[in-house]
Design a protein that fits this description.
160 residues; 8 helices; 52% helix
Length: 160
């Protein structure tokens, strides 16, 4: 029975690597990266602290994601309907220059409801992001682990 579990683990890790490779072949857009960063760095902590309002400064996002020269993309992504809807937010104030395309632009949001984000709809694939990161790190990375497993998977000629 122990061999069965071992093989099951190998198959699960192979599946995780295949999914990871598939996701790498479809690179994430800047807008998606910006929205995910906004959610993880600003929305979730503000909700956990019980704040009703919080702000995001475009320059902080540009610097954190190393998007030099992409300030308009940052400003656009942080005020899209998708970002607001996915995080149950309302944009209540935008401060900065009239163009609205500067690192000094600050967006102030308020939460539309009081439901915890765990109860709200969300992308299940995003929830899995980074799940096995520590496991693969201990094993020298996913590729190293698979190479090691593949090398010992088939019986060698001298064992037959």
């Amino acid at each position: 029975m122990q061999g069965f579990y071992c093989m099951l683990c190998v198959y699960m890790l192979c599946f995780a690597c295949i999914v990871s490779d598939a996701l790498r072949s479809f690179p994430m857009s800047h807008a998606d990266r910006i929205r995910i960063h906004g959610r993880e760095r600003y929305v979730l902590p503000a909700r956990e602290r019980g704040q009703s309002r919080f702000s995001i400064r475009a320059g902080d996002v540009v610097q954190a994601l190393q998007l030099s020269g992409r300030t308009p993309a940052v400003c656009s992504a942080l005020k899209t309907h998708q970002f607001l809807k996915d995080n149950c937010l309302r944009l209540i104030e935008t401060t900065g220059p009239k163009s609205g395309q500067s690192t000094t632009v600050t967006f102030t949001y308020e939460f539309v409801d009081d439901k915890p984000l765990a109860q709200q709809e969300g992308d299940p694939w995003l929830k899995l992001r980074g799940t096995l990161k520590d496991v693969f790190a201990e094993l020298g990375g996913g590729d190293a682990y698979l190479r090691k497993e593949r090398s010992s998977f088939h019986a060698r000629e001298d064992r037959k």
